[in-house]
Amino acid sequence: MSIPSTPSTPSTPSTPSTTEHDDLKSRLPDPIQLFPEITGMAAAMSKAIGNGLIPQTTIGLVQLRAGQIAGSTYHTVRQSGGLREAGETEERITAVSSWRDAPYFTDAERVALELVEAVLTPNPFGERVPDELFARASAHYDDKALWTLTLVIAQICFFIPVALVAKPIPGKPIGQNYTK
Fold first, then answer.
1. Whole-angstrom Cα distance, residue 147 to residue 155?
2. Is residue 44 within 8 Å of residue 158, measured between CB atoms?
3. Which of 37, 53, 79, 166 is the most exposed place for a label (fewest CB within 10 A)?
4. 156 CB neighbour count, 10 Å cutoff
5. Would you tell me how many other CB atoms lie within 10 Å of the CB of residue 113?
6. What is the pTM of this model?
7. 179: helix, coil or strand?
8. What distance lies between CA 175 and its chain's CA centroid?
9. Residue 123 dihedral angles phi and psi, to the nearest 5°
């Protein structure tokens, strides 16, 4: 899942793609080498959130927004690529960072994006997830779907520190994104 580079013209500098960054190195080795049980944990979490109650697109949008909030290039590239592979438009992918003003999202997607922002953004004036936000989320998702959405956020929150500390290589397939 690499981002294609754009041809360069004298007035437009080229944007490097991951294929032009073959010299990138991760800080740590693939954690699976050290902790093989992570594979089972990741598979169980993927199975739990893949129960069909939350559309795959919504999962990708929520996890993309989490990567953006955390400042994780790895997750931003990974989730954007996954959304592209699933047929999402560039407008929707690009607009995730400004979803509040963008016309591209359903009400259910908007409340999911608001929920991930609430979880990951400190609120100095009260609860991160106030009752009002929970009520709006409950209007779109039943209890099991809300738990699923909560686990979607938990899954990306598990992997964000991995990306920020270990620095897997953005755009490289899993299993090839660590160099050490």
1. 12
2. no
3. 37
4. 26
5. 21
6. 0.85
7. coil
8. 18
9. -120, 105
Tokens of 140: 């779109």
- Annotate 35-67 with DSSP letters as a single string: -THHHHHHHHHHHHHTSSSS-HHHHHHHHHHHH
- Cα–Cα separations (whole angstroms), residue 20 to 71, 80, 88, 139: 22, 19, 25, 46
Per the structure block, which two tokens stand in for 75?
């997750």
User: Residue 86 CB: number of other CB atoms within 10 A?
Assistant: 12
CA 67 to CA 76: how far, in whole Å? 5
Taking only the tens place, the pLDDT of each residue in 91-148 is 999 999 999 999 999 999 999 999 999 999 999 988 999 999 999 999 999 999 999 9
Helices and strands in the chain, H and E counts: 8, 0
The structure tokens listed for 139 are: 């209007």
- 146-177 per-position pLDDT tens digit: 999 999 999 999 999 999 999 999 999 888 99
Would you tell me how many other CB atoms lie within 10 Å of the CB of residue 152?
Answer: 25
Task: Taking the CA atoms of 7, 11, 17 and 22 in sequence, report the sign of the dihedral they define.
Answer: positive
* Neighbouring residues of 79: CB distance < 8 A, sequence distance ≥ 6: 60, 63, 64, 67
Residue position matching structure tokens 């902790």: 35
Helix (H) or strand (E) holding 95: helix 90-95
Say if CB 129 and CB 118 are below 8 A apart.
Answer: yes
